[in-house]
Amino acid sequence: xTPLFAxxxxxxxxxxMTWFDVTxxxxxxxxxxxxxxxxxxxxxxxxxxxxxxxxxxxxxxISIGVINPPFFAFAAVAVAYCLYVVKIYLHASRExxxxxxxxxxxxxxxxxxxxxxxQVIRAFKKENYFRxxxxxxxxxxxxxxAGGANLExxxxxxxxxxxxxxxxxxxxxxxxxxxxxxxxxxxxGLTGLSISWALTITGLVSFALKTLSDTExxxxxxxxxxxxxxxxxKEADWEVPKAPEGWPTAGNWNAQNIxxxxxxxxxxxxxxxxxxxxxxxxxxxxxxxxxxxxx
Length: 295
Description:
two-stranded antiparallel ribbon, elongated
């Protein structure tokens, strides 16, 4: 994570001013704080827990199948259905969390702006105006969060059904093969052991899905940081082209037909300026407010 943070910080510092004009400060803070914290503290733990739960789940299913071999046929169908549900859940969860994060950034940015400029807001009696804006943005965030909560209920119902079918199939095949399978013949202990393992599958599947979803979400943090690192808006190189040795040799300036705008898509603020400055000449720029003196 250290190279990612250093590279991202370098990319932000080397960004042109036009990029800062269109990028909210709350979004930059979110990338360099919350997303970086997910990579540092949470991502390694969730990857470890995901692997542990997946291996435990696979081992449980294999153990039940060793005791009741016909269970493998049912398990193949059940696992295929579970993988289908997991695919839908992870895809939807990833997109919903992305929408939730995107909708949260403007809310935090507005809160920070209001906290810094509350004197001006009170002076112009705009409290209700900013309250309405905050409520509108917070409603958008709550809608995104509600979608994530509904998705959790959707997948919880299906994992519970999956666990119930596994327990029912284990009990059914244990009774069906009690006289034909050498592992079960006269050994009720193995039958009870397989059913007790089956009872743990619901919790294992639910926890495995949660850790997989958390891993997906925290990998989104890596994706967002890489977007800043690989963004096309970059400041011009500091060394190329390099000025010749001893430049400038004189203080003469000749500007011909200079036209300037702050970024692509905006109108020109300087239109065809021509001027000449001689060496050691003192220059003053004057004009009304907004005429472009600073530019």
